Amino acid sequence: MTLRDLQYRARRVALVTVLVALVLTLLYLMTGLVNQLQNEPRNAVDGIGADTWVVADGVSGPFTSVSVLPASLGASIGESAHPIVVSRGSLTTDGAEATEIVLVGHRPGELGQPHVVAGAGVAAADEVVVDRSLGLDVGDEVTVGPETFTVVGETADSTVLAGQALVFVDLASAQQLAFQSVDVVSGFVIDGSDPGDVDGATMLTGEQVADDALGPIESAVSSIDLIRILLWCVAAIVMGAVIYLTALERERDFAVLKAVGASGRSLGAGLAMQAVVVALIAAAIGAVAAKLIEPVFPLPVRIPGSALVIVPAVAVIVGLASAMIGVRKVNRTDPAEAFG
Fold first, then answer.
1. Which of 149, 32, 51 is nearest to 91 (CA)?
2. What is the pTM of this model?
3. Long-range contact list for 220-226, CB < 8 A, 24+ apart?
4. Which of 11, 120, 205, 245 has a 20 to 30 A CA-CA distance from 223?
5. pLDDT in tens, 104-124
6. Nearest 5°: phi and psi at 180?
7. How far, in Å, CA of 230 to CA of 19, rounded?
8. Segments of the chain with pLDDT less than 70
């Protein structure tokens, strides 16, 4: 009987399913956006590969603050310390607007060089490795500040601060671009444990560096979480309103069925089943639509596999909860109305 009712009200069910699917599509995308924003700094820090970062005292992290240390401080830390430069900058290509980037300088072949997914790592002063999110190819010419570089390699997932790409050059080039001097660096990276106290410097773990890089966008993540809650409320209202209207339209039918022996529980279960069917179909449509939109979304989005299970499950729960008003209406229907 539930399936027959769905067929009888096919247009309404289809419209509701599409509306809920649109809401769930946004939920999938918002979930993917939050996932990307939270994992982005950790992926970038892991790509550099340092366990410990040495920065100037009073600096919260290399990606959110300006750190300046003498290059000679590396001798005091030990042979495990590798100098690094982290600086904000802009990158331009022929005929394109400048793109804000994070410039990272390292010694070729040493700690700080990222994992390259295409091409090769930096080996000379005029070479650069860029994140593939910039849309550049190996062999392209780019300008960083006043200097021109040739793209020799590409990285993946090397972005911070909601999509700002990390661009890697050799240490001396980065020192000249950031400080106009080879006597200073932003800090040092160490593959191993904390080397101990160093005058004028602070030791940060890779996790602390990633958490600090996430700090400037935490309010944006919280705002997106609030939007997700509101979207769930919209989905519940849409499904609840339709189920309640169905219960009103079928009130006399329910009275007749009760009069011939049908229980209110079984009739209410039929309404609840309609909500479950709508929720599951909408979740499937929303998942497909989100995957299609994901590559062209203005901000980086990475929908986790867990969302493909959690969102349908929550949609079913929300659908059942929203159907309770209609179920209550069924239970309150008097069988005597069938003879009115």
1. 149
2. 0.80
3. 220/37, 220/162, 221/34, 221/37, 221/38, 224/30, 224/33, 224/34, 224/37, 225/34
4. 205
5. 999 998 988 999 999 999 999
6. 55, 30
7. 15
8. 1-2, 5-6, 95, 193-194, 247-268, 326-327, 329-340
